[in-house]
Write a structure and sequence with these properties.
heterodimer; A: alpha/beta; Rossmann fold; six-stranded mixed β-sheet; four-stranded parallel β-sheet; globular; B: mainly alpha; 73% helix; Leu_Ile_Val-bd (chain A); Peripla_BP_I (chain A); BCAA_transport (chain A)
């Protein structure tokens, strides 16, 4: 409570400065309460860590002047309609440099059109649903101000299928939630299975609703059909129910799914039943490089935790701010249109905690969404839940990242 | 193999159904004495679960948390009676419907503000590794739900039948005015029934929380089902409520297996509509004679 008061006060002080036009105004949006909160809060806190670092160093060099970053926070509560309202509100501000955030793909779909209409630069992170970007390519938009900074579901689904094949599974069940995110995840999985040579036979496709706690029916159907592993797409609490249900029914088989399996509310609610769960990760809370160590330490210290609720959301929020700041510096302006152009052609590499970002984006091409996607397969590793934490599933990845950092 | 599967589904479902029955029993307790129902019963379940979780957080052992949570439930039940029901009953109005709903909503926002909106695990010393009975997997957690529900319901029934206070309870539910003429305080008895209904709500919350996790919305799905159970069984048969609870739980589970998981909620609603249309007093209910 004291913290929020303090935050409110600081915000008040900041907003006095707003008219002075000596700040770079960035909005952070996401669900800071509710089931998706671990992702939203981690993203926000990671981003604010970066912002604090930049401000403490005097701010961003914009042309001849150093400008501090001013933050506007909005909690969309993972609700599409709130997301749309927030997007309208932010899009109506005429001095906004850009927007970073949004966790839920549904919220992205409800709100981003307002940013695009006004040409406001937005970096989506950590929402991963494919539709967030394909909505623009399908519409044939010529000039896009929306960028993404997260491993999209396409990459993730391919890794999930790859992992299942590597584990010599032949028959799998797909279980997914009934939201936009879950359904598009299922389609990505089916598509990837086809692309990777139909080596997996899908013996059951089952869904569940947000809030469901009893997954016995879905799991028994999978079991009866002879599934050797479960591929899953959903968010934390319900996936924990799946994991607990598997333990109850004695289904000792791999559970592989989207990165959301690393959410703290999955890990906590599944407890020891979560051990061994596999999911793609862009960042693992393991201080393997000096940069990672300092990021993890400062996060723990700043927010009084011993475990980041969603480490990759935090790391992505952190890196996204640095990428954005680099674009502001290159644009020599706080004008959101100029920042967009700079983002599409970043000259200087940006040293982040996940990777060193060399030219992450290119000029938008509606035929190729990758132009506005920062992540490639190489930036993503397989993570595994072990005793309440996410660790590297493959030592090879860990060693590779350590080696890369040494270069 | 296949029959075993059906039995497994039915058993898992039926054990959850007992939780519906326990919450429905809470409806029944207050309806018997006052012909009123606490529409915020779900929030009572949730608030008591959160309160118990807080007791665990401060380090109380589980075996003290259970009675602690139940006492909290009793207090909440009494509060609902005092703040929402008594005034309306005194004025012979149906105001308790809105008042209990409003109290429920208040409880919900209070929970969101005090404990946050996240679902949190509810630690329990009861192991979660499954036990096998004739090829069927049952977790000790599920068994604890069954044992807890049946024990508390039997105790309350015994109390109603064997003690003097319980007799007063029965008398008030049979005929409030006559009981009052005989010197039984209807107000006291209604208070008692709300206290007991808070107690069973709290127990339902504590028992089900390790399975469902604790969050502000944890009871919203349960409460609708409990309501169906109460109406289908009839609002005056404790035994009937257990049977219908078991039946609905098993039916839900089988429906979601055969028709798909999206249909899980359907049986409860269909049964509710059928009961209201065909047997408004419930399957086990007594048809009351209304003298005009």
């Amino acid at each position: 409570m004291k913290k929020t008061m303090l935050a409110a006060l600081t915000m008040g002080v900041f907003s006095l400065h707003a008219y002075a036009a000596d700040t770079v105004k960035i909005a952070l949006t996401g669900p800071f309460t509710g089931g998706s909160a671990p992702m939203g809060v981690s993203m926000r806190d990671g981003a604010k860590l970066a912002i604090d670092e930049i401000n403490r160093a005097g701010g961003i060099q914009v042309g001849g002047q150093k400008m501090k970053i001013e933050v506007i926070e909005r909690d969309d509560e993972a609700k599409n309609e709130r997301g749309a309202l927030i997007a309208q509100e932010l899009a109506s501000m005429n001095d906004l440099a850009g927007v970073i955030g949004t966790v839920n793909t549904g919220v992205v779909l409800a709100g981003d059109k307002y940013f695009q209409e006004k040409g406001i630069t937005k970096i989506i992170t950590p929402a991963a649903g494919s539709a967030s970007m394909t909505q623009w390519s399908k519409a044939g938009v010529k000039d896009l101000s929306i960028f993404r900074f997260s491993a999209d579901d396409g990459i993730q689904a391919s890794m999930v299928v790859e992992e299942a094949i590597n584990r010599k599974l032949k028959k799998v069940a797909i279980i997914h939630d009934s939201t936009n995110y879950g359904v598009s995840g299922r389609d990505d999985l089916l598509n990837q299975i086809k692309l990777q040579g139909n080596k997996l036979q899908v013996v059951a496709t089952e869904k569940f609703n947000i809030g469901d706690k009893d997954m016995t029916a879905q799991l028994l159907k999978s079991k009866v059909a002879g599934a050797q592993g479960i591929l899953i797409w959903g968010i934390g609490p319900e996936m924990a129910a799946v994991s607990n249900g598997m333990a109850k029914l004695g289904m000792k088989m791999p559970l592989i799914g989207g990165w959301t399996l690393s959410m703290s509310n999955y890990i906590d609610n599944a407890g020891k039943n979560g051990n061994g769960t596999l999911m793609p990760q862009t960042f693992i809370e393991d201080p393997i490089t000096p940069k990672a160590r300092s990021f993890i330490d400062s996060y723990h210290k700043a927010y009084g935790v011993t475990r980041i609720p969603s480490p990759m959301s935090a790391a992505q929020g952190y890196d996204a701010v640095y990428v954005f700041a680099a674009a502001v510096k290159q644009a020599k302006s706080t004008d959101t249109h100029k920042i967009k152009e700079a983002l599409e052609d970043l000259k200087e590499p940006v040293k982040g905690v996940i990777a060193t970002w060399k030219h992450p984006y290119a000029k938008w091409d509606p035929a190729n969404e990758q132009t506005h996607e920062a992540f490639r397969r190489a930036q993503v590793v397989m993570g595994m839940v072990q005793d309440g934490r996410v660790v590297f599933a493959n030592q090879a990845d860990r060693l590779r990242l350590m080696k890369n950092a040494g270069k | 193999m296949y029959t075993l599967l059906i039995v497994q589904m039915a058993v898992s479902g039926a054990l959850m159904g007992l939780v519906y029955a326990l919450i429905a029993y809470g409806f029944q307790l207050t309806f018997a004495t006052s012909k009123s129902i606490n529409f915020g019963q779900g929030e009572l379940v949730m608030l008591s679960a959160f309160f118990s979780l807080t007791l665990i957080d401060v380090g109380l052992p589980y075996w003290l948390v259970v009675p602690g949570g139940m006492l909290f439930g009793v207090a909440l039940g009494l509060f609902v009676e005092r703040a929402g029901v008594r005034l309306a009953l005194e004025q012979k109005s149906e105001g308790w419907i809105l008042l209990t709903i409003i109290l429920g909503l208040l409880g919900f926002s209070a929970a969101e503000n005090i404990w946050g909106r996240d679902d949190r695990p509810f630690p329990t010393p009861i192991p979660s590794d499954p036990l096998h009975f004739f090829g069927i997997d049952v977790t000790p957690l599920e068994l604890s739900v069954a044992i807890g529900v049946l024990t508390v319901m039997s105790l309350v029934e015994l109390f109603k039948r064997k003690t003097l206070l319980g007799k007063a309870f029965e008398a008030v539910s049979a005929d409030r005015d006559a009981a009052q003429l005989m010197g039984i305080s209807a107000t006291r008895t209604i208070q008692l029934s709300y206290g007991l209904s808070g107690l069973v709500a709290a127990l339902a919350g504590i028992l089900v929380a390790p399975i469902t996790t604790v969050g502000p919305t944890m009871a919203s799905a349960l409460i609708l089902k409990a309501f169906s159970v109460a109406v289908v069984a009839g609002l005056d048969s404790g035994f009937g409520i257990v049977l219908i609870g078991l039946f609905l739980g098993a039916l839900e589970s089988l429906t979601s297996f055969y028709l798909g998981s999206g249909w899980r909620e359907a049986p409860g609603l269909i049964l509710l509509i059928l009961a209201l249309a065909v047997r408004p007093n419930g399957v086990f209910g007594k048809a009351s004679i209304r003298k005009v």
